[in-house]
User: Fold these one by one.
Assistant:
Number 1:
Amino acid sequence: MRHPLRALALGVALAAMPACSSLQLGETRLENPAAAARTPDQRAYALLHAYAAIVEEAADIVRDPAAPLSLKRALGQAERAATPAVETLQIAVTGYMRARADYDAATSADQPVLERAASALTIAANRLSEAIAAADRPIAELEALVRRR
Amino acid sequence: MFNLMLQLQMLLAALSAFLPLVPEKQRTRAGVFLEMAAQALSAGSSVAANLDDLAAKLASVRAEVEAMAAAGRAVTPEELDAALIRVRAASASFRAALEIAEAGAP
């Protein structure tokens, strides 16, 4: 045999082909928990937990001595950009839940009290929607960095 | 993903066993190539493990939110507090790790 190494490589490649074709390369699929939510508070809750999970993984990457420093710094920047948006989201969801509790408590109260509670709930819901929209992008950017590694 | 990396590492180990069959002249080159591939795969395994871990965490959050949505249940103040505590702990741990990494940087 003139080229044993080439023949061996070809043999191995051919033997491995059926196994490789049955593998789903890159099969790790990241779920979007917020997509399952039906109410603003559920969406905010999903985003907060998802953000925490992404930051936990980012911390593991930063602790890894084999990870390049440039990536660690990029993660640091992305985390610093996302954290204020997530803090605003925390305040907004807390305000929304308080306003909703006030509204629930006011349903048996007289009309002016109920109207005040309803408009406070509307304002809180709008603020929460804005906070969710503002947090979406920086969280997605941090997630993309963790994925890209 | 992690399983795939494991299978590739096993394939590489099997290939290494054939190294003595490679002609003397090319054995060193083949050895270097296999070593490089092993290093790349070892880095890849750590990435895959991280990504699998994140995928599991996100899937768990999604399952919880799906159950909430299916039951038409609102988030309770206790659940929100737990989420906020988790966010703060994760952020603090990340920043501490980054500080250590920066301190050790050349």
Number 2:
Amino acid sequence: MGPESFRWSYLLLISLFYSYVSCSSVEQKIYIQLNNTVPCVRLLNATHQIGCQSSISGDTGVLHVFESEADLEWILTNGPHPPYMVVMEAVFFTRPTMMRMKNSSRVAGVAVISSSTAPSEGFSPHTRCPNQNSGVYGESYGPELANCNNTVWNPLGNNLSYEDFAFPIFFLENDNQTQVIRKCYEDHNVRVNGTAPEYPLCAMQLFSHMHAVTDTVTCMRRTDLQNSFSINPEKLCDPLNDFNVWASIRPLNSSIKGHKENESVVIAATRLDGRSFFWDVATSAEGTVSGIVTLLAAAQALYPVTQEAPPPRNIFFTFFQGEAFDYIGSSRMVYDMQNAKFVIDMDNVHSLLEIGQVGLRNGSNLWIHSDPVSRKNSSVNEEVDKLVKNMQSVASSLKLSVEEPGSSQALPPSSFQRFLRARPIPGLVLADHQSAFINRYYESLYDTPAYLNLTYPPDLSPEEQLEYETEAAKSLSEVATLVARSLYTQAGGDDQFLSNITADTKTVAKLLYGFLIKSNNSWFSSLLPPEALGRGSILGTGAPQYYIGLRLDNTVKSVTRFVQFILANMTGTVLSLNQSQCQNPNSVPDQSKDLYSYSWISGPVSANGTAESYCVRASVRLSKALSPAFELLEYGSREYSTWTESRWKTIGARIFLVASPELEMMTLGVGVAVLIVSLLVTYFISSKAELLFSSTREAPATTY
Amino acid sequence: MTAAVFFGCAFIAFGPAFSLFIFTIARDPLRVIILIAGAFFWLLSLLLSSLVWFIAMKASNAEDTKVQTGLLIFGVFFSVLLQEVFRFAYYRLLRKANEGLAAISDEETSPISVQQMAYVAGLGFGIISGAFSMINILSDTLGPGTVGIFGDSQYYFITSALMTLAITLLQIFWGVVFFDGCEKSRWWVIAVVVCLHLLVSGLSLLNPLYEGSLPPVYAITVLMAVWAFFASGGSLHNLSLLFTRKILFVLQLICFVKM
């Protein structure tokens, strides 16, 4: 007996003689659980549901590996064992294929295996016109520019992320387990010369049942009903939410909300989130990280100069969360400003500079987009022209070229649009594209560090990679310098200090490494507070993902935390306070929690393994990024984002064999035969027991 | 579809035990009590052997497959011996109870014969051991998967059910023969029963070589059935009597129809 058969008999015996064994032992012989799976989940807005779901007990289908277009015919028409569970490489995950499967009842689900090579023709499962209904353009504001009439920003968008699939779709990391799946398929399911494979067949089951249906209005109504009547209420969906991060060059008193006298701020904004077709898989290198890194590096470059020679206007850095889902973060900040719930209000806003996608600029070209509708107002136009001139003069000193794309072109999808909805303020959006996005993988799986040309020479250790200045880092640090200098002049700073403002390429390199390759690195951990490290560390193992998700217990998404503490370290002062003073600074003279936030930072680990912790005082704060629709309880709002994520109980995937119907029927037949025969025989013997066992006693007690 | 496997396996494993119960046990309260008590004694033996197993598992190195193999074989044989010890204990208890039953009975004899007690006690052992061996497996027959992804036989479920059926029947026959041996003080009979029990359990170690385990187990079952038939007062004479009656009856019927 081999070890395998031995394990088998062990199993049988255990179940024969020992009840002390969990029932999973047979299960382990039947199922292979797949780890490293990411589902596509259901999201809802005011009118629709999108995403995927399985039935409540999971969807099962015979495995079929999609290797060529011919397989599609087999799956959808010829194959004799429907429904099929389709396993495909990411290259086959295209709209035509998925839509044909969507309309077929012969597909039980799809598992997409990640692949390192991106399709050269581009792939974006997002819409062609991102956030078209929540931006500024509409019937009352530049109707000729509404719905991307003028420029289609994401021409490769195929809308796949916004389809509603009735079957589960999972994403599998390409690892040993996909090899197991392939092996199972090759052993059992492969067609020989076009004839159907024989039972037992390899099958897969996917669990991703979603609790919410129809739309946000319905699911919030049901949740509220449960909350008011049930003792044990169960939520069906939660609004997407997290936090925006903001900081200002001069501290703003956060205990006083509303208008600040004599305060005029220049807002420097970027977005903090992205998405892809699948839940919590969003590397968003070009889409999001290029902006985050640029703005952080610009903030760091600006800080020392603004302390020496403070410009007349304040500079306000902000990172908006949830912008991929109808501008959750920016709409909330604008809403708070309008309702005197924020440290400043709209009157305090002088102008705005937003960093869009800047990682893929072609040569030295950058483009500054502005809003043609508000520029019809001469005073706004004047200001915008000034901003453009400032920026162009800064750019020319840096040997960059910054151009305007044309006066009639609308703004690309940007947080600035939410500010324009409230008031025509002057502002610019800096991006690497003239009209349509250069990014061919907008909000997709392929928007990876590799796409951003973030490549390291081989045989570098992680620490060396962290420090390595890639081409991408050099390019982004130029952009960061441009942004920092433009902000300084925009804030009214003196031109003579401009040459002191230069973004550090090394910092940009480290930021790129931390935000795109591996957040668990020595530099990130030295900038975070000790409680964020250690057990339950927010650093995670791989690259951070940029899907906003939702916060159930007021925790903060790890990416938001990274930005918060990196910004605090870059724009803060180190104080000589001990840990308890740092955590409670109001007891220390001259320190105020209203003006500053105080964080106790781990500090770099020295050679002997101890970390030098210190206290940082900065003006960095978090502000809620929950759509105002959920504050106002307007779940059907057309004004604000209404995106919610459905709740679910189990997400799982497993493969196993299914027996032939003949074998199953044979088992049942044998069972029924055994039952009937035993009933007849027992009846016969018990009725003749007296006769059969007569020698036992003269008069048996039995009365049969 | 997999509900078919569930019901098929359940019928195979528990169909005979079920029909025996409804036709021979259910109508007599005394038999029900003896059956339940028998099941309880088997459970006690299981409790003890699982205790020993638990300690052995904790004490041994889980990585060492050789030790684990040895432990498994030891565990099987230990458990079998314990079951037989408890069968004997149950026999002693029933003998005592039988005297008491005879004392309070109107007819001065016990209302139940030793052979009947042996059969009922054996069925008690059989039902409970069958339940314990099969229920875990039954819960997994509901599917959707079947055994085999690691290259195991796809007949696992049906063979497990057949094995359970054999074990249930064997427990009945062993009970009858064992009690008969005790009654007549023929110790070799008890020894043979224990040895056969050890043999059957040992044969299941051959799995998944079902050709190696199932046919011998069924051969032993048939043999034990014959032995148990004679031990409980059956004889060839009775059998022929039964069949001649049957034939006579059939002949009469034919004559009646012809007339």
Number 3:
Amino acid sequence: MNSAHLAWPCRPGHAVVAVVLVLVSFCQGVASGAEQVSIGSKSFTESVVLGEMLHLLAADAGAQADHLRQMGGTRILWEALLSGEIDAYPEYTGTLIQEILKGQVVDGKDELREALAVHGLRMGPELGFNNSYAIGMRRERAAQLGLRDISDLRELPDLALGFGNEFLDRADGWRGLQQHYSLPQADVRGMDHDLAYRGLASGALDATDLYTTDAEIAFYGLVALADDRDYFPTYQAVILYRADLQDRSPEVVTAFSRLAGRIDAAAMSAMNARVKLEGVAESRVAADFLAAELDVQAQLVGRSAWAGFWRNTREHLALVGISLSAAILFAVPLGVAASRSQAAGRLILSVAGILQTIPSLALFVFMIPLLGIGGPPAIAALFLYSLLPIVQNTHAGLEDIPSPIVESAAALGLPGRARLRLVELPLATRSILAGIKTSAVINVGTATLAALIGAGGYGQPILTGIRLADTGLILQGAVPAAALALIVQGGFGVIERRLLPAAAMDTKAG
Amino acid sequence: MVALASIGDGLSRCLTTPPVEATAAFQQNAAMLHLRDISKSYDGQPALSPTDLHIASGSTTVLIGPSGCGKSTLLRLIVGLVRPDSGTVTFRGEPMSAQNILLARQRMGYVIQEGGLFPHMRVRDNVILMARYLRRDTGWIEARLEELTDLVHLSMHLMDRYPSELSGGQRQRVSLMRALMLDPELLLLDEPLGALDPMIRYQLQQELRAIFAGLGKTVVMVTHDIAEAAFFADKLVLLRSGRIVQQGSIAELARSPADSFVTEFINAQRGPFEALGEVLA
């Protein structure tokens, strides 16, 4: 009875304590005297660069600022701003009107400001560039043909056009453009957008669609034809922030307004190119811009690769550790309950089964309205995801105990709880551990998706790597995640051997 | 005989004699167990029709009958592993219920065919589990463990093994130790020797009978082997299809059978031995 396995039910307690310690170190630095200002950015380079500028400006204005980089798409940033997870992020007027406030008729900037005020939000001044669709050509080709505006294309029916598939298919893409300008070109091909750039460079194509601040504009020496008949909606870059930021931290709002009209399309495109093509860090690019344009000497917190790795590791361990510990604490009792009554068993197992069928990404997104963004929704999703294997294996482990053993324990006069603690759970330990191991390995892998909703972890470098097409960066997240999964797997193997001497688990010879 | 005498010595030591007045009151009632109108069916199939059974203190009763006759169900109803559809089980004058069954089980010892030992616990922990749970004095537990190893002829060094490291016969001895640990008044055995090979089975039969005789406990045993039943029983209870056909000593059953089934059942198992006797003659 003094053998280790009988003490089994006490073990998870230690894990919880350890996890809480990790969590505390994860969250430290939050408490401080200065006003806390959180900046968000979307998952593309331009947004991250602008977010980094806001971050540096807020810090320069004396706030305790942080930047949740590449949190996701428009919807996630919008929800995060509404819920107060973040205080500000860079947005585009076209996106606000066409996507977020879709269904409302918003005409002009004043109406847009009013519509945003309803949500408790404010729109800062325009930054100075319009990141819209445009039609781009190589500079010398345009000069050679004497082209400046889109309407000039009407005179040249034989031009070879190649568009990204999305632009070609959208009603407000090529088809609308062609009607609007009465363009005669028949040689129009749909293709992958990166290939269109190469087609332009090689001379196989004359023109393609592009975003006006694409990094490739400078790289390939392109020029955007002017939208002289105002076909494309404007996507003026603006700063969106919570109305309460004005009261909490007026100096931060003032600092933001210094960016008004300071970034033109060429400057933005050049900054995008420095990040995407030259591999310069977003924070460095943003700091250089602020120094040159606004004479703001931002203090870059030099983050070494090791510091980044350590931070990702801590975040990842916190995500996995908290969600898995909570799952163990819930799922084992649920598995016990499932084995106690058939009806409860069916209910519990099918609910846990259904949770498992929800795609993990969808589960993360479902959590946002309930818990906001960042760690809590990610942990909640990972928790739900980890339940099934543990519940199932606890249930199966208890059901598989030969009935003579269960009945012998009952016939001794042991009450139900004591039978569970002394006989049944120890005998189900192997199965329960196997369930926990499965959950842990799945959890370590799935937690990389948590970066999509701003929870950090090893998913962060993977996400950045995908955005920058940087395989090295992707591996910086993928390799530690895989290694962690192997370590977890191996660790459980050791625990199993420690806890369960072979002779002790031979239920055949009872 | 020498061996038996030494067993007797061991027994007198390990018998904790109950208070005199309780014993007296008991023997006047003379009923350790009384099953009244007890019945059980599984999924609509009757396993035991309404049955009365009286078990006297200090007697050895053997429940016997062909497979599926309800003898094991009867034993499991007594220990409360199965709840009756109707009727009551009265143990030492007290009707059994969900409230008192746990306490009652502590005064019963239960041994099953393959021992039902807990595979994750060493032999010692199997035997003393309940005493530990009840926080009995450690000194008392150790002394009791030693007495019981003497009683069942196991050496102390086996106590540190796991059940899977013992032979079948050794496991049954351990199972008996576990059943006797709290010195119960009633010992219930469900085919305790059924899984053992014949030589070991014979040896254990001899030892078990000596142990029962020495302890003076009330014993209820289930077997399907008439020779084994005759060897142990003060009273046989012969069941068929969920009903008691006849109760009494083996001599009564043989001499004045209640019906032809009783004779058939006795003869069916006596057959091979008589055939052997004829061949040898």
Number 4:
Amino acid sequence: MADLTAGPEKTPKQGNAADAVRASLTRRNRKQKLLQGLGLGAIGFAFLMLFILVASLVSSGYQAFTQTKITLEVYVDPEEIKPEKLPRGGFKDVLQASLSELLPEVDTSDRATRKALAGILSNGAQFDLRDRVVADPSLIGQTITLTVPVSDPYDQLNKGTIDRDTPEQNRRLKDHEIAWFDQLKAKGVISKPLNTGLITNADSRFPELAGLKGALIGSFWALFVCFAISFPLGIGAAIYLEEFAPRNKISDFIEVNINNLAAVPSVVFGLLALAVFIGWFGLPRSAPFVGGLTLALMTMPTIIIATRAALKAVPPSIREAALGIGASKHQVVFGHVLPLAMPGILTGTIIGLAQALGETAPLLLIGMNAFITSAPDGPFDSATALPTQIFIWADSPERGFVSRTSAAILVLLGFLVTMNAIAIYLRNKFERSW
Amino acid sequence: MMNDMSKIEQGIAVDAVKIQARGVQVFYGEKQAIKDVSVEILDKTVTAFIGPSGCGKSTFLRCLNRMNDTIDICRVNGDIRLDGEDIYDPAIDPVQLRAKVGMVFQKPNPFPKSIYDNVAYGPRIHGLARSKADLDEIVERSLRRGAIWDEVKDRLHEPGTGLSGGQQQRLCIARAVATEPEVLLMDEPCSALDPIATAQVEELIDELRLNYSVVIVTHSMQQAARVSQKTAFFHLGNLVEYGDTGQIFTNPEDPRTESYITGRIG
């Protein structure tokens, strides 16, 4: 301000300054445009990658959401299946007989041909029939209609994955087998309904039978245990550190280490769980309970950090208001601060749990990638989880597992998106302004 | 100074000393915020603390209900007595003290709860109401004392945060008086309010004087002149001058007080 009094000789300099500003303005504007362009480019790239990811998953996975099935009229022959011998019996032969009826010109005197013919049906077909007959033995001697999955090669043929133009020796199905299938299709017994087995079946060696039930239930138990442990412990630790702990070297040290803990590679937690939970405590391998404990170790730092941030974000005026009326420290924390921080805490928790749901490495180390063909009955039963199931299927050579892997990834992504959507919904619903 | 005060008190219906502070020093870590302040705050009187920013008036106010306890690095020396009882005595629970010494803050800070729950919170935690009807009565009485009953009686169960700034501040005053305090501390209660709301709150302060000893920190000298009977001028952590409001504003003894009042420092 004092310079203004310095007077007229400053005026030319001011003109220069205006020129300088104008000159630098072009440069600054150019920089800003460049920065904006880069930002937009980055976002565009991210969207493109997301699109490619989802598109490739959908294009390879959509086939798994349908399943080729065949409808058979099965005469439950009392010669083959005797009520007193259940659940044993010649179910396979009965099914083959009904197939032969559909394809009468096939000569079944040859054992190899019989075997090839039976290969149209999924290995699970006989168990479907067995289960129905065991449930209702009065079916013996009657003819029942049975819709069962076809085996994987025929499923792939029906879905167009097996190319008919490939030379016969390079093909999973021989020319005569394709001819059988075409005859069956012409008779209208082949259908391609929604593949409910993907959700209702547990894992199987046969892709047409393999489903995610075991993995879904395993993941549910693991997440349940993870939540039940990490939520109360995480919030408790965060409240103590944020509201009650004295600020000193020890609490600083703890804080730094919690932040570090959140950044520890997950495989390390898996090793820890293997050594401590399974090695020392003797908990069962492959159990969702152990998986949940392991995931809780990883989720807890996330919850602690999110909770502390949420507690910090509660305006001090609310604390002062409550203290000024004569509320005690714990009344302030539990009556005012915690309820106001809850939306932030829940958001952080759900995001932490979503992370845990997709975590693979620690579960591999505690054996949750075992081949288990039945869904677990509880958290201590052997099970897989969604990501480890994907891992197993991705490792399997059959063509059917390729699409199933993608389908399982889509299911997992669906859960993740849902959980994140819930987190956003909760945050918007309960967020308050002051 | 004591002699001055006894002269000043003539003509005002004042009975007893409510709060007596002697040799109060406050430190934030190494930094001394209050240097040896001694003051006697009278019952049923509005006492104004004035002074430039950072002079320690809010800090001193917060010593009176031990709100400074919540700041880790804050240390208070000296002797503050409420009705002759040392409030920094280890046997005194600050929670109990704050029920007796209510506080209203600079920014209206209603809880994000209903108007009713805002006012009922204090009586609830202190167990002042034996029944629902009792509590209803306390809430109504407090809201009436806060001069806001007529405006909110039809929407007691709507959130207190939905009120206007001035209404929120009167709600906070109602909330503070609901616990039946003996002293009411107000830390710049009108600084976030418009002139109309300020006038309403000032009118309210004048009424509150009938029941409570009110201590108000204010940046507005006009406000101090309008609402208070006693004024204390703080400067750089010292209590420079304390006396009858009329005298402080018309005939200050200390040159610093005069400079501040006439706008030369601050």
